[in-house]
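Quick start: read one record
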Amino acid sequence: MDEAMSAAVRHAWLAGALSALLLAALPARAQSLADPTQPPPESRLLAPGAADAPVVSAGPRLQSILIGTRGREVAVIDGQTLRKGDKINGAVLVQIDKNQVVLQHGRARQVLTLFPDTGTGGKTPVHQR
């Protein structure tokens, strides 16, 4: 009986070892996870270096307007704090309202709005006098 038992144990061990080898030989089918630190696949459609190119503004950008209770009016344009009569890029700040300012460069006037329409990008066309 011992021989029959040891033959059965050897057979079971051999079957187990063979099964383990077969399972180890199969390729692992783990689901690959996307790396959250990588840019989205759509960014690969851009030309090389296009994503790294700085955004260039077409003109001055109004960032803030401060109107005090004692008549003090200040506008922040391209990071510069300006009052009426101050110059920025050759243009003079001639008017400050609660939502917009007016710059004048010679005869041309440019209105910058604080909360622009999405279609105009914050700038209204330059008007000639």
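The helical segments are 2-25.
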